[in-house]
């Protein structure tokens, strides 16, 4: 196949997914979001597998990638519902941190235009040495930033799924046609080497 084909497009989509996943992984690490960190790590591995399968003409690897994209879309839909608080979910819960810590998204304090202020609470009994952190002036609420991240992931995953199915079908057709013309059989059954027989026949009529 040429360069401007579904295969090259899928390679580009996998590379784009890798960059997007790595960017998201960095900010999830900064926010101690353990569930998204694990999901991103698995996503990176599967995308690399799909990229390898596309480059090396391995349809089975691309099938695994296609199945994973469907799971990845479902995961990102859950993330969107989580931050938009759909179906009883709460963005302030500790679900994404496995109830290990009370951290939130890194964007909640470092979003565009956000100003982080700390106020001492030494005057309040039982809270000496602690500080209250307030964030003001955010141009965009952090949950919408997370929703945009997940929406972009869903978009490229859906396009990747379509191209993965197309590339698998093309690879399968090429393998079937190659088998049909005997491409994988270097010594066909109907091929007979007649040279030894001719030599024996000539030796029979040699003069005494």
UniProtKB/TrEMBL annotation:
Segments passing through the bilayer: 34-55, 62-86, 152-171
Keywords: Cell membrane, Membrane, Signal, Transmembrane, Transmembrane helix
Subcellular location: Cell membrane
Superkingdom classification of source: Eukaryota
Keyword Transmembrane (UniProt): yes
Membrane topology per record: Multi-pass membrane protein
InterPro entries linked: Na/K-Atpase_Interacting
Any Gene Ontology CC annotation: plasma membrane
One BP annotation, GO: regulation of sodium ion transport
Signal sequence residues: 1-21
Presence of the UniProt keyword Cell membrane in the record: yes
Annotated protein name in UniProt: Sodium/potassium-transporting ATPase subunit beta-1-interacting protein
Taxonomic classification: Eukaryota, Metazoa, Chordata, Craniata, Vertebrata
């Amino acid at each position: 196949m040429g360069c401007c084909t579904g295969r090259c497009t899928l390679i580009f989509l996998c590379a784009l997914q890798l960059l997007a996943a790595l960017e998201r992984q960095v900010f999830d690490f900064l926010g101690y979001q353990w569930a998204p960190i694990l999901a991103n790590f698995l996503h990176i591995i599967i995308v690399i597998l799909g990229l390898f399968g596309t480059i090396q003409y391995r349809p089975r690897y691309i099938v695994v990638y296609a199945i994973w994209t469907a799971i990845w879309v479902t995961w990102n839909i859950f993330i969107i519902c989580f931050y938009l608080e759909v179906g009883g979910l709460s963005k302030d819960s500790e679900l994404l941190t496995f109830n290990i810590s009370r951290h939130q998204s890194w964007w909640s304090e470092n979003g565009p235009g956000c100003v982080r202020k700390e106020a001492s609470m030494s005057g309040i009994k039982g809270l000496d040495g602690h500080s209250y952190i307030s964030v003001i002036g955010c141009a965009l609420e952090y949950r919408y930033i997370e929703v945009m991240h997940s929406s972009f992931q869903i978009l490229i995953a859906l396009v990747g799924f379509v191209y993965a199915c197309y590339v698998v079908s093309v690879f399968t057709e090429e393998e079937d046609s190659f088998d049909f013309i005997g491409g994988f059989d270097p010594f066909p059954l109907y091929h007979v080497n007649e040279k030894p027989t001719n030599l024996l026949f000539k030796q029979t009529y040699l003069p005494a």
